[in-house]
Amino acid sequence: MRAKLASQGFDAAVVDTAVAELASEGVVNDERYAHNYVAYHAARGQGPVRIAAELKAMGLQAQLIELALASAPDWRTLARQARTARFGPAPPADWPEKARQARFLQYRGFSADHIRAATGADPDVDSTA
Predict the structure, then answer these.
(1) What ranges in 1-129 are assigned the alpha helix state H?
(2) Is there a single domain that holds both residue 48 and residue 61?
């Protein structure tokens, strides 16, 4: 909120006073904001890596970000849902298709662990021994 008001040309001292007053009244709450942000963006199919980077860029504390991400639904399930919504229910048939779907999920902000779970890209499963 400080950055937004400062970019609008408000005096820094006035902004600090206003934000401190709003925080003391409970109107502005970083923890509540982080939880709402994670819930909203997770529902839109974004992963924890991307969400954490965006919250960090906004200046939220790392501890608040970690707490908010921990309270979110299962990230592996969300990665599977995002993959299914984009590519359909059939699992990827070959490695080039798995790589394409993995790049999509990586862009959405899912970790390698979540991507492997969503695409079935575990090398042990696909080995032809």
Answers:
(1) 2-7, 12-25, 30-43, 48-57, 62-70, 75-87, 95-108, 112-119, 123-126
(2) yes
Domain that holds residue 60: 2-70
Question: Is 100 in the same domain as 117?
Answer: yes
**pTM for this prediction:** 0.78
Q: What is the pLDDT of residues 6-44, one digit of tens each?
A: 788 888 888 878 878 877 777 778 899 999 999 999 999
Residues 37, 95 share a domain? no
Cβ 96 vs Cβ 105: under 8 Å: no
- Pick from 11, 14, 31, 94: nearest CA to 102: 94
In a domain, 83, yes or no: yes
Q: Is residue 129 part of a domain?
A: no
Nearest CA-CA partner of 71 in 87, 51, 57 = 51
Where residue 26 falls (left for φ over 0; alpha for ψ -120 to 50; beta otherwise) is left
- Residue 109 in any domain: the answer is yes
